[in-house]
UniProtKB/TrEMBL annotation:
InterPro entries: Kinase-like_dom_sf. Residues 185-216 are annotated as: Disordered. This is Protein kinase domain-containing protein. Keywords: Coiled coil. Residues 109-171 form a coiled coil. It comes from the Eukaryota.
Length: 499
């Protein structure tokens, strides 16, 4: 080869690569076409056409025999991965005498197209299965979340039912004890009555002589004796107090409702408003009227003998219940304990037209005026840290429950101090013959304040009067004062433990 000129050696090398390229292209077409018949610019009757990529368009601009060695090398390297052929679109128009040749040439290409179609079909099938699986997984996730939510709700209801059961058992124990004492007193009373009958003719007293006695065959005791049985610390002044007189009226004539403090549900009995008066600002608690329909509905649920509608309003109306409690506090609460309650300024009646200078309209017509509760330092009170004897059992129980928690000694003392303060507030109401009836966390302060301020919201309270009520704290089952006080103390302890 050393004697051959350079130009001739290049021609020989080009011819070798051209022949090699024809063979590789023919092999790509699976030998359906002879190497000598391979074309880069095939005719329609050749049965195939090359797919021209934009960056390889120059490879198909001239016949195969006219290319350079580098192009032959590129074709050999890229045929298959980057350079492909497909059946000619005009296959069906080929004359019959050329069709068998066309079919032979493109047989391998048709096989490849069939495989591609099959793979595409399988891919689509797998995509559908994946979509179905995702939908099913999504549905199962939603069902699982709903089941978990239902389980949590049922667990909460079960916990509440357990607490109610424990409370009812404790109340039942108290009632059994009271019933036993009443039975013993009735027996002594029967013995005394029999003794008197043997000596003198018995003439029962008239109702005018003992207006507060309960003239019933069920019990010889008055409501006062039954309610305060075995109770200590209730003065005769409280027992004889009359809170059903005309309540205190708010002294200012001009009062502007500015905005509501809260937005209760439509059926809520009351709503608290911020109001501006002649000498300052106030919180006004407005109540929905207690209608005759509501009173008649309560009468239908009460046992015989049926009370009057006036009696039902007296015992069930939230406005009447709260007014009665604050009137008792205003008249009889000692000065050192007045800071345990909201400052009460009296009641108001809103006329059908809006309040003067106020653009606010409301369907609530009766209200009670208080000072505005503030969550800042000026609204907090510090009370004695001494644990009163009656509170010791509850403090001990809370201390035992706190010992199970991972909290510091300082936090434990704080919980016990909160319990002590709340029990002192409730005891101040109890010594006035008032049962709050709706102990919950936010009746000691404001929702946005972590500190206790005062005991408020007496809209379900029972304030003792000598007339037997048809309901106490919204419940038709009457309880003794001692039993009801113990229930409220347990509720306070539960609220502190859940803080």
């Amino acid at each position: 080869m050393e004697g051959i000129p350079v130009q001739r050696r290049g021609n020989v090398q080009r011819a070798e690569w051209r022949q090699k390229c024809r063979q590789i292209l023919a092999q790509y077409l699976r030998k359906s076409v002879e190497p000598a018949e391979v074309r880069l610019q095939p005719h329609e009757d050749d049965g195939y056409v090359w797919i021209r990529q934009p960056d390889r368009e120059h490879l198909f601009t001239r016949p195969l025999s006219k290319h350079s060695t580098s192009v032959y090398m590129q074709l050999c390297r890229e045929v298959g991965p980057s350079i492909e052929a497909i059946p000619h679109p005009g296959l069906e128009r080929i004359l019959p005498e050329h069709r068998s040749k066309r079919i032979r040439v493109s047989g391998s290409i048709l096989d490849l197209t069939s495989q591609i179609s099959q793979l595409q079909s399988e891919t689509e099938k797998l995509a559908n299965q994946l979509s179905f699986s995702e939908d099913q997984t999504r549905r199962e996730r939603v069902l699982r979340q709903e089941a978990e939510e239902k389980a949590r709700r049922l667990e909460g209801e079960l916990s509440t039912a357990r607490m109610d059961m424990v409370q009812l058992q404790q109340e039942n124990t108290c009632l059994l004890s009271v019933n036993e004492r009443i039975t013993k007193r009735m027996k002594r009373s029967d013995d005394q009555t029999a003794s008197y009958k043997r000596k003198l003719p018995f003439n029962p007293p008239s109702p005018q002589e003992h207006p507060h006695k309960r003239l019933s065959l069920d019990s010889p005791l008055s409501w006062e004796e039954e309610f305060f049985a075995n109770s200590k610390g209730i003065s005769d002044r409280i027992r004889a107090s009359d809170v059903d007189r005309e309540p205190l009226r708010f002294h200012e004539t001009l009062l502007e409702l500015v905005y509501p403090f809260n937005h209760p549900v439509p059926d809520a009995p009351a709503q608290v408003w911020f109001a501006r008066g002649e000498t300052g600002v106030y919180a006004v608690k407005l109540y929905k009227p207690y209608t005759d329909d509501e009173a008649e509905s309560q009468v239908a649920r009460l046992s015989d003998p049926k009370p009057s509608l006036q009696k039902v309003r007296h015992d069930f109306s939230p406005f009447a219940l709260e007014t009665r409690a604050y009137e008792r506090i205003r008249k009889l609460c000692p000065t050192p304990q007045q800071s345990f309650f909201r400052r009460y300024h009296g009641t108001i009646e809103i006329p059908p037209s809006p309040v003067r200078r106020s653009s606010v309209r409301t369907s609530r017509r009766q209200g009670i005026v208080f000072d505005v509760l503030t969550p800042g330092l000026e609204g907090r009170h510090l009370h004695s840290g001494r644990v009163i004897g009656d509170f010791a059992p509850h403090a001990k129980i809370l201390h035992t429950e706190l010992a199970k928690l991972d909290i510091s000694p300082l936090e434990k003392r704080w919980y016990l101090s909160v319990l002590n303060d709340r029990l002192r507030m409730a005891m101040s109401a109890h010594t006035l013959g008032i049962l709050h009836g709706d102990i919950k966390p936010d009746c000691f302060g404001l929702p946005d304040s972590p500190h206790d301020i005062v005991l408020h919201d007496f809209s379900r309270a029972y304030t003792f009067t000598r007339e037997r009520p048809c309901a106490m704290n919204g419940i038709r089952r009457l309880r003794s004062f001692e039993c009801a006080v113990e229930v409220e103390r347990r509720n306070i302890r539960s609220c502190v433990h859940e803080m």
